Amino acid sequence: MKSALALLAHGLRCNVVAGARLAAFLRVTPFDYRVSPADFAVLFAFIAAGAAAGSFVRGGLPGRFDLGAIPLLLAEIPIVFLACTVIAGILGRRELVLGLGTALFASDPVFEVAGTVLVFGLAWVPPGVASAIGYAYLAWALATVLRALVVFNGWRGARTVAAGGVLVALFAGFVAFMPRPELWVQPEPEDATGGPSIAEERLFHRQQKLLEEVLARLAPERPGVEDLYFLGVAPYASEDVFAREVGAVRKLFDARFGTAGRSLALVNSPATLGEQPIATATNLRATLERLGRTMNPEEDVLFLFITSHGDARHQLAFELPPLQLAPLTPPALARMLHDSGIKWKVLVVSACYSGGFVEPLKDANTVVITAADASSTSFGCANGRDFTYFGRAYFNDALAKTFSFTEAFEAARRSVSEQESAERLAPSSPQIFVGAAIRDKLGSLERRLAALR
User: Fold this and answer.
1) What is the mean pLDDT of residues 168-193?
2) Domain boundaries, the chain
3) Dihedral (C-alpha) 252, 255, 258, 264: value to the nearest 10 degrees?
4) What gap in Å lies between CA 238 and CA 365, rounded to an integer?
5) Strand stretches in 107-242, DSSP E
6) DSSP letters of 208-268?
7) Which residues contact 24 (CB under 8 A, 6 or more apart)?
8) 322-351, pLDDT tens digit by residue?
9) Please, what is the Cα angle at 162 between 160 and 166, to 5 degrees?
10) pLDDT, tens digit, for every residue of 379-436?
11) pLDDT in tens, 129-138
12) I need a surface site. Which of 35, 237, 282, 342 has the fewest CB within 10 A?
């Protein structure tokens, strides 16, 4: 038994070292790998353990292991070996299947470590540099995959090119459609927020007056001036990232976009129950109606930012236990905006599947921006974070440098795509619609804001 274990341990060491040498473009031969079903099983178990460790480092505490992610990780095996079988058929070498498959997996520990370092490192470099590093990382990984083919088969002209095409397609498929699942995830937010409860009588009755007090403090519109009004909505209480994000964005707009006195927020958070009105569909409707009466419909612009969880039915979660709050749907928000009489609008919805809001909300006088398309998730909603991925890219990074809401979106879309690629996440594909009539209105607003700086 000891001898067998020793042999397997030796085979694992050989495969990991050979994989590292392959990724480092140092000299390596097929004989440096240990190729057998047992050696591969041990190698993959080591890779899975490394993936779990990397996921833990990236996610941090608190958290839990997600056993449901294991089948997705295991699904890589048949996909890779199917590609190796196709390659072996192209090259006429059936014995190549297990050896090439082992080599393709053996470099995984190197890229797990490098990918984890990138997750933390890219946050400290400018977006342009982060983009270059992200693409370089992917190019390095693809070059390593192709080098494994050459190491095991040498160069055989057109056949090698065809086999390489299979590997390129395999690599692209993993990057675009099957990113490695995270084995360590944040805990379910059942009691993540803690603190006071809306069920407390004092806070419950305070809320009845709080909204009216906040609305009464809104500064009136100024004739002849294109005023910008900001409304932030953070309706999901069990993860504090949404309340933090709305608070930070409101401060940015007050300081940079001149909304001080013309900004307000609806927030579901135990920390703000006595200070800010809660986010419910009823409060949102009442707030939009008051804004519609306060704003000049021909001059002023509303910037509405909603950040929450979304589902595949395109419903935004409104949650503040123990209250039972109705979710917000695209048709319901469209009706609220229509009834408010607000003409010029920039709407930003940051949530999974938020692209489902584009079609119901778009018109000639509106910009609609979403953190994801209608069939994709977005990322970064976890306790302790100040921003979601899209929120940081759009507000904290892009809008801190420009007054153009549309230019900021393009910069944010690139930044989010680069971060998701570096972390091997499925693309969220942020969306934008710009109405024909509002382009000139926003240009005039941008010029006025820039002139004040």
Assistant:
1) 72
2) 2-185, 201-452
3) 60
4) 34
5) 184-185, 228-234
6) HHHHHHHHHTPPPP-TTS--EEEEEEE-BTT-THHHHHHHHHHHHHHHHSS-TTSEEEEE-
7) 110
8) 888 999 999 999 999 999 999 999 999 999
9) 110
10) 998 888 899 999 999 999 999 999 999 999 999 999 999 999 998 899 999 999 999 9
11) 777 888 899 9
12) 282
Tokens coding 224: 């002849």
In terms of DSSP H, where are the helices of 280-376? 281-294, 330-340, 358-361
How far CA 385 is from CA of 93, 248, 380, in Å, comes to 51, 12, 8
Q: Please tell me the number of Cα atoms within 13 Å of 379 on its side-chain side.
A: 19
Nearest of 156, 6, 139 to residue 96 by alpha carbon: 156
Sheet of 431-434, strand order: 263-267, 228-234, 301-307, 344-350, 366-370, 431-434
Q: How far apart are CA 130 and CA 79, in angstroms?
A: 30
- Using CA atoms, how far apart are residues 179 and 423, in angstroms rounded to an integer? 8
For 122, phi and psi rounded to 5 degrees? Answer: -65, -20
The residue to which tokens 């408010």 are assigned: 340
Mean pLDDT across 7-11: 92
Residues near 284 by beta carbon (within 8 Å), at least 6 away in sequence: 233, 266, 328, 333, 336
Nearest Cα to Cα of residue 432 among 377, 367, 388? 367
Q: How many degrees, rounded to 5, is the angle at CA 361 between CA 358 and CA 364? A: 105
The one-letter amino acid at 16: V
- Quote the tokens at residue 322: 């123990």
Contacts of 306 (CB under 8 A, 6+ apart): 232, 233, 235, 316, 328, 347, 348, 349, 350, 351
CATH for 201-452?
A: 3.40.50.1460
In sequence order, the 6+-apart residues with CB closer than 8 A to the CB of 96 are: 84, 87, 88, 152, 153
Joined tokens for residue 65: 């292991």
424: left (phi over 0), alpha (psi -120 to 50) or beta: left
Q: What percent of the chain has pLDDT over 90?
A: 72
Strand partners, 367: 346, 434
CB atoms within 10 A of CB 432: 16
- Angle, vertex CA 32, rays to CA 31 and CA 34, nearest 5: 85
Smallest CA-to-CA distance from 268 within 237, 302, 299, 314 is with: 237
Per this entry, what is the length of the chain? 453
